[in-house]
């Protein structure tokens, strides 16, 4: 063997050993996230982070929304340290941060530019002035509709529709023979699924979860009117199996042309306007979330954010990852891969200032305004002792909100009446706050 070749082989061998040694000492960051398109895109682009940080390996646990919430809650409350990064929201973050379960996010890299992050998002992910999660995307809710179907029937969607108008449109646009449904709405049970949307309907119909003394209000005329409207609308003009449809299922129905209207998260706009993901990209229009007797609480505020549990075994590596995943640079990566319309919305002022985003996302300014005008401090017509628009900001809500969601889902499926569902829900909510000591 020639000396040069021998020497080259030696070098390759040494490099391979060094590489194995590096991988053996690499910090593994386990990320719990949900199966929404934006998170799937994050996983797809994450090798760029691993290449830039060869000492960090990412391990992904991607779950359906309700399952993610259960797993994250179990992990954080038991301190088991299963996850280094959790995808949580505006409901969990302030509560868990206050309890000392999350790592405070201080000393972020200078180029992170925290002041560029939309203030509403930062405030919603803080407790006592301390930030506990970084927003991956922020959303409100809005109305999507098929411009071509509206034009064919001579209908015009107002900038601010009422629920009465929505019901009239749905009746005229339902064409079951051709597989087109007048309206798609969340029916899948869950405090963050059907009850997130349902609570905005209750709010704008003048209702509230609790009065000022923490007495549950689910048997009130406002709740009955709101839930009767919602259930009847889905039964009459919604798709079959609506009681099983959450955000992802309705996104699939809308983007494949099956829904004439859909009221849901503003984050879906980027997907519906993306020609690679949507068959109706050139036919979709948008308007504000509908209102009934009051505009209060008609559109929600939510952030899917990345947080580091106190029990994380790799907090430094986890922090490096979440700073990257919520950075300006990451937004540029998505723009290159999917186009500007599909970048994570609602997080950074600089995104909304970009001419490329303005051109690709005609909904951009509207969405930012919806996010900035949503008011979790005053979500209802009558005063309430809680904060949160589409949720009640107390730890017990996760449990009783889901139980109520199951009853409402049962009403959509025809398994019980609205009165039965609301009576059962009222008893569950009352019992939960009584046991927790809210009622004096």
UniProtKB/TrEMBL annotation:
Gene Ontology CC, one term: periplasmic space
Primary location class: periplasm
Signal peptide feature range: 1-26
Entry keywords, A to Z: Signal
Localization per record: Periplasm
Family: Belongs to the bacterial solute-binding protein 1 family.
Name used for this protein in its record: Sugar ABC transporter substrate-binding protein
Species of provenance: Paraburkholderia lacunae
């Amino acid at each position: 063997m020639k000396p040069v070749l021998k020497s080259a082989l030696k070098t390759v061998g040494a490099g391979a050993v060094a590489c194995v040694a590096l991988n053996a000492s690499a910090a593994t960051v386990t990320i719990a996230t949900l199966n929404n398109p934006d998170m799937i895109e994050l996983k797809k682009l994450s090798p760029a982070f691993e290449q830039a940080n060869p000492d960090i390996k990412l391990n992904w646990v991607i779950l359906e929304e309700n399952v993610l919430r259960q797993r994250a809650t179990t992990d954080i409350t038991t301190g088991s340290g299963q996850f280094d990064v959790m995808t949580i929201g505006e409901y969990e973050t302030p509560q868990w941060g206050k309890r000392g379960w999350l790592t405070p996010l201080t000393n972020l890299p200078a180029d992170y530019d925290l002041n560029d992050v939309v203030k509403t998002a930062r405030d919603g992910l803080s407790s006592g002035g301390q930030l506990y999660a970084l927003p991956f995307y922020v959303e409100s809710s809005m109305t999507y509709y098929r411009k071509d179907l509206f034009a064919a029937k001579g209908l015009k969607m107002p900038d601010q529709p009422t629920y009465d108008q929505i019901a009239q449109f749905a009746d005229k646009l339902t064409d079951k023979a051709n597989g087109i449904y007048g309206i798609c709405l969340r029916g899948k049970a869950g405090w963050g699924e059907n009850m997130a949307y349902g609570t905005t309907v209750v709010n704008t119909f003048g209702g509230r979860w609790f009065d000022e003394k923490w007495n549950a209000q689910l048997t009130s005329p406002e709740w009955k009117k709101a839930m009767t409207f919602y259930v009847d609308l889905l039964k009459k003009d919604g798709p079959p199996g609506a009681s099983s449809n959450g955000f992802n299922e309705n996104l699939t129905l809308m983007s494949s042309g099956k829904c004439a209207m859909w009221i849901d998260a503003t984050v879906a706009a980027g997907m519906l306007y993306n020609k690679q993901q949507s068959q109706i990209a050139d036919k979709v229009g948008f308007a504000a979330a509908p209102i009934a007797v009051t505009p209060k609480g008609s559109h929600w505020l939510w952030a899917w954010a990345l947080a580091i549990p106190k029990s994380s075994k790799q907090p430094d590596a986890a922090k490096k990852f979440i700073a990257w995943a919520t950075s300006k640079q990451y937004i540029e990566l998505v723009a290159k891969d999917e186009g500007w319309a599909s970048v994570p919305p609602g997080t950074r002022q600089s995104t909304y200032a970009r001419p490329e985003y303005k051109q690709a996302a005609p909904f951009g300014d509207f969405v930012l305004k919806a996010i900035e005008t949503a008011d979790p401090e005053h979500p209802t017509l009558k005063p309430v002792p809680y904060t949160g628009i589409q949720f009640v900001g107390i730890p017990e809500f996760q449990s009783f909100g889901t139980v109520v969601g199951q009853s409402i889902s049962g009403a959509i499926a025809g398994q019980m009446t609205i009165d039965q569902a609301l009576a059962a829900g009222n008893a569950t909510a009352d019992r939960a706050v009584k046991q927790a000591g809210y009622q004096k």
